[in-house]
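Support case: user asked for a sample of complex input and structure output to validate their parser. Sending the pair below.
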Amino acid sequence: MHEMGIANSVLEAVRTEMGLHPGTYPCKVGVRIGELAAIDQDALRFCFEAIIHETDLKSLQLGIELCPRRHRCQLCGCEFIVRDYDSSCPQCASLKTTCISGDELELAYLEVEEYGSSTFGAKSSQRERPHRG
Amino acid sequence: MDRVPLERKVLSENDRIAAELRARFQEHGVLCLNIISSPGSGKTSLLERTLEALPPHDRVAVLTGDIQTENDADRLKRFHFPVKQITTGGTCHLDARMIERHLADWRLEDLDLLLIENVGNLVCPSSYDLGEAAKIVVLSVTEGEDKPLKYPSIFFKSDLLVLSKIDLLPYVPFDIEAAAENARKVHPEMEIVKVSCLNRHGLHEWMMWLAERRRAHKPLVQQTAS
């Protein structure tokens, strides 16, 4: 369970990036997670929510894009998604294929909004946390 | 609303420190190996048998990680090589900064081989680069032959699979060939050795693998240095 550390790193990156965009606030941060990255997306969401709770970034959303394992055939160059650990080439059946993606753990984008823009008030009130029953 | 592309790794700070460590290891000709397994698979026992088999003046050091206790370092210090315990205090993996910190008072020029025993965990250590030349995954025969399929990340990223505790094979329903096949499904080029640290079967193959890696690392370093 290292998703808490990952969530912290994402948040640190957001804070660093925000230094470059004065007059704005962050709305959503996008991350890319590969199938081989050993990250549980539900655990990451849980940790992310927990660390932004009651901070100035409490309305920040987390966008997760899951990336499959992709291989390229060394013989025919065909690129394909590996399913059920079958990494043989679907075109020429060669077993000599190389992993080209699938272990991503990357920050993809950050969506920022200017302070005082028309949507600001509406957004922050929409994203208030519901009280626990 | 503006979308700013970030396009960098989440663990870029860890990767930056790991890259610095790798460059230092390379500069001083140190082969660094990162050994990973579930808790209790036999990483420390494998290191005990390894240190025991190495000549007394070999330039070897060990960093061993655990959440609590100095037990592993105490076990490994008996062989008179430099050993340091990294207690993470709760963190389930080692990261590059911990390695950097614990290497601070060792002279890398006095070492040829640095063995890192990670915290027992098949998941998280696979995300953290420590600057190692290779990862080694240990899987014991009491764990189940489908572990490579359940935890593909670490098996995909390791160069060598050490199947440990093979002395227990007569007593457990573990299909060692299926385990090897599963590991190669995830990682077709995976090298595999089968060892028992109790009756010492297979340790020769492991030591040969290690010696070969050390031999292969040396000319690589000399080429880079010249």
